[in-house]
Design brief:
The chain is of the alpha/beta class and 300 residues long. It has seven helices and 13 strands. Strands 10-9-8-11-13-12 form a six-stranded mixed β-sheet, with helices on both faces. A five-stranded mixed barrel has the order 1-2-3-5-4.
Length: 300
């Protein structure tokens, strides 16, 4: 049989599940060791004679890719061909806003839309101090939704944000990504787990990435939860492009190559002093700069 185009809709190490152009879903293996398909990839595949499996023979060029550095400092691709990144935080586990910022940075570098969801509002309607952070994200133009996967509050608003998009839902372990998807799809198939009482951190419940169709139109990739994340940036200078309020105001800096740390006449530092730019977001930017420099150094 000749090659057919397909989309990777689930990954299981070196095994995949594909959706063919005609809508059929099949299991697949990967030809050779160099190919590393991820959820969202467009691939070429062919049926294996006398087997139910198909064989992925090539990956088509990606429009974009969500990346992170692995333990060796090399770039690891998590998903491809996305249109929206939705990062979830929650009342529990305690939000790490720096991780949220790093995901948003990745979305900016990829050139896709992003949204912030704050889950488990049924546990603490006040938001565990999240009001200021969420207001800052809204101020700089991100869609912000408060929700409760338990009560379904805010789920309709999330549906509106996701409508017609190929999206990925990301965030710390235990924030309720799979529970939100269950609500969105009215399907309890996505595995969920409670917070570990011993550590207070979330248990990893999504072992492999899977693309789930949404009612009406669009799809969402449920990715494994993380305790930390950073985008794989080419250099620390790229960090400024990942913080949209810094990128927008950097044109007012005195020097064209200003990196907004110690330069005199820096418009970003002035904006932080005047509370135009969030001091915490600026601290997040500086951390992203330092982390990227360390990761770049580890590659050599």
């Amino acid at each position: 049989m000749s090659q057919q185009s397909a989309v990777v809709i689930a990954t299981y190490s070196r095994r995949m599940r594909l959706r063919l152009a005609n809508g059929d879903e099949v299991n697949a293996r990967i030809k050779g060791k160099r190919l590393k398909p991820v959820c969202g990839d467009q691939v070429h595949a062919e049926a294996i004679e006398n087997e139910s499996d198909w064989l992925i023979t090539s990956i088509l060029p990606r429009r974009n890719q969500l990346t992170r550095p692995n333990n060796r400092g090399q770039v690891e691709v998590l998903a491809a061909n996305l249109e929206l990144l939705m990062v979830v935080a929650a009342t529990s586990p305690k939000p790490d806003w720096y991780i949220v910022d790093r995901y948003l940075c990745a979305a900016e570098i990829m050139g896709i839309d992003a949204a912030v969801v704050f889950n488990k509002t049924d546990l603490d309607p006040g938001g565990d101090g999240a009001t200021t952070e969420l207001a800052d994200y809204s101020k700089i133009g991100y869609s912000v939704v408060r929700c409760s996967a338990k009560t379904a509050a805010g789920i309709a608003e999330i549906q509106n944000v996701l409508a017609g998009q190929c999206a990925i839902i990301v965030g710390q372990s235990g924030v309720g990504k799979s529970s939100i998807i269950n609500r969105l799809t009215a399907n309890a198939a996505q595995r969920t787990a409670s917070i570990s009482h011993k550590s207070g951190e979330g248990r990893h419940t999504t072992v492999n990435s899977v693309m789930i169709p949404l009612p009406g139109n669009g799809s969402v990739i449920d990715s494994p939860g993380v305790r930390d994340y950073a985008p794989a940036l080419a250099s620390s200078k790229d960090a400024a492009q990942g913080f949209r309020e810094i990128a927008a105001r950097s044109q007012d800096c005195r020097f064209a190559n200003c990196i907004h740390l110690r330069e005199p006449g820096c418009a970003i530092k002035q904006a932080v002093a005047e509370n135009i730019i969030s001091a915490r977001r600026y601290e997040s930017y500086k951390r992203m700069m330092n982390l990227t420099e360390k990761l770049s150094a580890s590659r050599y």
